[in-house]
Amino acid sequence: MEHIKINQESWDKRTKIHVSSDFYDVKGFVSGSSSLTEIELSELGNVSEKKLLHLQCHFGLDTLSWAREGAIVTGVDLSPVAIEKANEIKNQVKLQANFICSDVYEFGKGVQPNFDIAFTSYGTICWLPHLDNWAKTIANSIKPNGIFYMADFHPIHDLVSGYSYFHSSTPNIEQEGTYTENCDGKKSTLITWAHPISEILNSLIKAGIKIDHLNEYPFSPYNCFDGLEEREKGRFYLAKSGNDVPLIYTIKGTKTA
């Protein structure tokens, strides 16, 4: 599909920018820091010896951070540049990880229920035109009673930024730079879709994932939007008309046996 090719080329370009950014701090990660935030670390909990599938893993810092937490990790991403970099970092820090270059839908066609946990986070599902096959990929990848966990930017933020909250088959097509501090005005074509919370939950339920929690947070762990205020260390808030905008939501679910 054309959108996959266009977005893959854009993420190839973005990867080259991101690996040298302070935002991703690859140097710090190589020195031993984790790229995971307080939210997913506290909510997902102990992953030691668990087989963890990370969908849309970019160049693998979160995947490898889960490996440092003791998980047996597999990361999947559509960008060959990102996967190549993930393998370079894996070898540099001497961690075990399996990285696969594939888009989510194609990966889902052959996936087996070998994983204890499926994980995705921060800016992933907006690149997908529909969620039913995404949810099927998740359900088909985890064992009975396996866990699905996601943390992502709240779609309400898109609404207050002037975009649609509700899904449309017609995507947003824009020329944009990236969110790191070193983008230098470099722009790529990006094709994205809005997905409201109801669509996300219903696609997972339809695929056989029992929803255990839906949580919402008034802060982002990343300073990646205009107008954010760091009121507490590592917590960035956005107020509209004196009220905090929900910036992050998390979903945790269990595959029904």
Question: Would you mind describing this structure in some detail?
Answer:
The structure is a single chain. The chain has 257 residues and is α/β, with parallel strands linked by helices. It has 9 helices and 14 strands. The protein has a single domain (2-255), classed as Vaccinia Virus protein VP39 (Rossmann fold, 3-Layer(aba) Sandwich), CATH 3.40.50.150. The chain is 32% helix and 29% strand. The strands form 4 sheets. The protein has a 7-stranded mixed sheet with strand order 3-2-1-4-5-14-8, with helices on both faces. The protein has a 3-stranded antiparallel sheet with strand order 9-11-10, with no helix packed on it. A two-stranded antiparallel ribbon has the order 6-7. Helix 7 (132-141) packs across helix 9. The chain is globular.
